[in-house]
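Suppose you are handed a protein chain with no further information: no name, no annotation, nothing but its sequence. What can you learn? This example shows the usual starting point.
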Amino acid sequence: MIDITEWGFYNKIDPEDFTRCKTNLLYTPRISPDGKVLCMDWDVNSKYQHDVERQNYTDELLQFFFDREVLFLTKFKDKPYAPEIIEIDIENRRIYFKWYGSTCNDIVYAPASDLDDISDNWKEQLIDIVEDIYTSDVYKLSLYPHCFYFDDNGNLRTFDFYACTTKDDCLIEINKIKGMLGQGSVARFAEATDNAVIDFSVFFKRSLDQYIKWPADPLKQLYNKLYG
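A reasonable first move is to predict its three-dimensional structure. Written in structure tokens, the prediction is:
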């Protein structure tokens, strides 16, 4: 087992007040001391997730989403946009992959920083990635800039596959996942929920159309392409 005791936390930039904050409400993103490896540590006792009081944050919740992360990482592992996996530690619920120092969130929301400086075709890459996953009969809901990053060759990659559902199994009871709902997302989930069941086909469409914003709004372009 890899010792991550001395590994630091990764935090995204909050687009509202530009402070550093947690990237998600499930796993702990840990960065190796040399900055070359990210570990998704699904530790129910992590201080990263317990900076505030958490309700319904259970081992069962983490296992549910860890299993989905592994499932869809495995499905897409040979794609050029997938993380470069170093190890998947099933027993300790840790996933390690090659890291390049930052996500697109750090670029979009940092002063004097621009995605076009990294890649002149990042918008096309983003659309191609999301569309490829969609045409593989999967909805990927984690489409925010902090869920994407560039490798050293300017290729866009994505992680956070826990937020995926297949098109033929996209209904999930809200009680099953309410422990990972942040205050800012309650209304979005409610819009896609009927009789306490979330329809993630609806959630995906509204994410593209309304909620997930990038510079120049390429996801809205994809929405128009897919749904007219």
